[in-house]
Automatic annotation (TrEMBL), chain B:
Species of the source: Marinovum algicola
One Pfam assignment: BCCT
Membrane-spanning segments: 44-63, 83-103, 124-144, 191-211, 231-256, 276-298, 310-330, 364-382, 394-417, 449-469, 496-515, 521-541
Keyword Membrane on entry: yes
Keyword terms, alphabetized: Cell membrane, Membrane, Transmembrane, Transmembrane helix, Transport
Classification via InterPro entries: BCCT_transptr (IPR000060)
This protein's name: Betaine/carnitine transporter, BCCT family
Length: 138, 550
């Protein structure tokens, strides 16, 4: 049913992503789909990497680790944004088009008061993506 | 948004760069927490100390306005008159340093690594660095300054040029040509190479240490070669706090004065009342638009507004050029450039001068002012300049804006002086600048002498307001990044906080008094920052020497 599953990854908070990663891996196995981990970074150094190239390298390592531990095939795709805080949704939607994803599995926190002011990223991606989107709470 | 090579696991080559190995991890001192429903990611202690000390200084200015006004009112001129030689020489050094970088072999070092590609195309990049750094000044001083030097009765004539007016205001024909030439040269001196060299030094240092060395995007990173690991401790906290302080107060006091100016313009053009209420409404409107801009982000907000701004400014420039007579003004531009190059060396030499009114009251004041703004403008320029070579960077931050400023001053100043000469008795410009001194009205007085004054004055007011927005939004992004320890993706409520805070500080100072005192304080920070900038030049050389070229 699905051939390419896209999983947005925030490398800064990767330890919090257990639910979406597990769910995506299970689905990939079930449908024999390949997984693409997508990360969004800016050109400015962050706690994860000194520059975009290093970020891409780390995301690739992350994908390799996951492929080995979960027994799936996976790749990494890095998007660059000038101002990630405001552009992340658009970057993810663009990435989905580029890699030809037919499913996006995305972690989303439990909505609270703030979501009335700022819609969550997951919500916006689900609203605008052309493919299926699965939001995993956790 | 650019794409990075998607080949599995193979990093897109950004090319060789000399990453500095440090144990400091970006964000290690940050507090990530939730306050109610609002997520926060702030640097400890820079966020809190800057926030609290800003509140403390506002309170001081409000509680003891007389004392604060007296102290800073004394301090600023004391600094610019005693350290005039230091300001002038430092600015000269920055210009020579930048020109040297263009021709040096280090010019080929690329910001962001050898194979990095520019984040922004030329028009967007140029619009942003111009709108953040200088736009508002051009609106305010474009007419005022050349006319002032041309006819000042207060003895501030640059290099002792003879005033072309008699005591009763009649023109002395034989002095006109020289006074006019010197007025353009002396104005251009304050707006061309020197201020942009100051910005370029700070911006280049930050871009180099961020994109090539991998240090966080915050002012302290430029000091790594000098202080080493100590920049992550209190040395760095103090540097960053000072930068936040100068940026926020610089923006807030300009915003307060800007609202008064816009109000004066509205009164002059539309007869609107000149009152605190109108000014507060203006500040709220400017802050609201800036808020929308920062929420839309760098590309969707700040860049778009900057571009709109540049287009309107360009239209106004072309209009004044055509309406005042393209032939006359363009030959004025030619004479202005020539005069600038003839006089720039005598003007930038601080020794053996007798025109202290000009040299201390204007030049040293300007240098202190540009330098106190340099952390903000420099950091913003750095943020949008990844992917340029040092040579491209310095050329575009130094040479091209200087050229635009020369053109702007020749057009606006030239048109205004033309009006004064044509009809000394009836000229509105002469009435507002020379006969009585009403700086905010100078631009509108000049436009009044041209056709379609009602339309162009309205555009002028809009432009003044939008230039404030483009300074305010980029300033909020800069402060947000510094107070988040160099993170550019801190939660959005923090941007909202700084943008709103800036508006509130401006309103408090406007109502309670103290705008002048705190602006004098900001300009006073120009002196310590000058020492800092000289150190930064050394840091840049150290940093560039370690970079791979080509």
């Amino acid at each position: 049913m699905f051939k390419k599953v896209m999983v947005p990854v925030d490398l800064t908070h990767r330890e919090k992503l257990t639910h979406s990663l597990q769910c995506a891996a299970d689905l990939a196995k079930l449908y024999e789909a390949s997984l693409v981990y997508v990360g969004v970074t800016s050109g400015v150094p962050s706690s994860v990497a000194h520059n975009p190239a290093e970020y891409q390298e780390k995301l690739a390592d992350f994908a390799k680790d996951k492929a080995a531990s979960l027994g799936i095939s996976s790749e990494a795709h890095t998007k660059m944004a000038h101002d990630p805080a405001t552009e992340i949704d658009d970057a993810l939607l663009e990435a989905a088009e580029e890699i030809g994803a037919d499913l996006i599995v995305m972690q989303s926190h439990v909505p609270g008061l703030m979501e009335y002011v700022w819609p969550s990223n997951g919500g916006k991606v689900a609203e605008h993506a052309k493919c299926s989107v699965l939001l995993v709470r956790g | 948004m650019t794409d990075i090579n998607t080949d599995q696991g193979i990093p897109a080559p950004e090319g060789a760069a000399d990453i500095i190995e440090t144990d400091y991890e970006i964000g290690q001192d940050n507090i990530e927490t939730k306050m109610g429903p609002i997520g926060l990611d702030i640097h400890n202690p820079v966020f809190l100390i800057s926030g609290l000390s800003i509140v403390a200084f506002v309170a001081y200015a409000l509680v003891a306005p007389g004392q604060a006004g007296e102290f800073f009112g004394w301090l600023r001129p004391a600094l610019t008159s005693n350290f005039d030689w230091f300001f002038l020489w430092s600015a000269n050094i920055f210009v020579l340093f930048c020109l040297f970088l263009i021709v040096s072999p280090w010019g080929s070092v690329r910001l962001g690594g050898r194979d990095a590609t520019p984040d922004y195309g030329y028009p967007g990049w140029f619009a942003m660095l111009f709108a953040a750094g200088m736009g508002i000044g051009l609106m305010f001083f474009g007419v005022l300054e050349p006319v002032y030097y041309f006819g000042t009765p207060w003895g501030d004539e640059p290099l002792g040029v003879v005033r072309p007016f008699t005591e009763d205001g009649a023109l002395i024909e034989e002095n006109v040509a020289e006074a006019r030439r010197m007025a353009l040269a002396a104005t251009s001196y304050h707006w061309a190479l020197h201020p942009w060299a100051i910005y370029a030094v700070v911006a280049l240092a930050l871009a180099l240490f961020t994109y090539n060395k991998g240090l966080p995007l915050t002012i302290r990173s430029a000091f790594y070669p000098i202080f080493g690991e100590r920049v992550w401790g209190w040395t760095g906290h103090i540097i960053d706090t000072l930068a936040v302080f100068a940026t926020l107060f610089g923006l807030a006091t300009s915003l307060g004065f800007g609202a008064q100016q816009a109000n004066a313009g509205l009164e002059y053009v539309y007869g609107l009342p000149n009152s605190i209420t109108v000014q507060v409404i203006l500040i709220i409107a400017i802050t609201a638009v800036a808020l929308i801009s920062v929420l839309r982000g760098l590309d969707g907000g700040v860049k778009v507004l900057s571009e709109i701004n540049m287009v309107i400014a360009l239209l106004l420039l072309v209009f004044v050029l055509v309406a005042a007579g393209a032939g006359t003004i363009l030959s004025e531009f030619g004479r202005g450039i020539l005069a600038y190059f003839q006089e720039v060396i005598p003007l930038s030499n601080p020794h053996g001068r007798e025109d202290t009114g000009y040299m201390q009251g204007w030049t040293a004041f300007y240098w202190a002012w540009w330098i106190s703004w340099s952390p903000f403008v420099g950091m913003f320029i750095a943020r949008v300049s990844r992917g340029r070579t040092v040579r491209e960077f310095v050329t575009c931050v130094l040479i091209i804006p200087s050229f635009v400023c020369l053109l702007w001053m020749a057009v606006f100043g030239g048109a205004a002086i033309e009006q004064v000469i044509a009809d000394p008795a009836g000229s509105a410009v002469k009435a507002q600048v020379i006969d009585s001194y009403n700086p905010p009205l100078s631009l509108f007085a000049m436009l009044e002498g041209l056709p379609f004054a009602a339309i162009t004055s309205t555009i002028g007011i809009i432009l003044v307001i939008v230039f404030f927005v483009t300074s305010s939004d980029s300033g909020s992004l800069v402060i947000d990044t510094i107070t988040a320890g160099g993170k550019v993706d801190a939660p959005m409520p923090q941007r909202v906080f700084w943008c709103t805070f800036e508006g509130l500080v401006a309103i408090a100072l406007l109502i309670g008094g103290g705008l002048g005192a705190l602006q004098a304080m900001v300009i006073s920070t120009g002196l310590p920052f000058t020492v800092i900038l000289l150190l930064i030049c050394v840091a840049i050389i150290k940093g560039l020497r370690a970079e791979p070229r080509g």
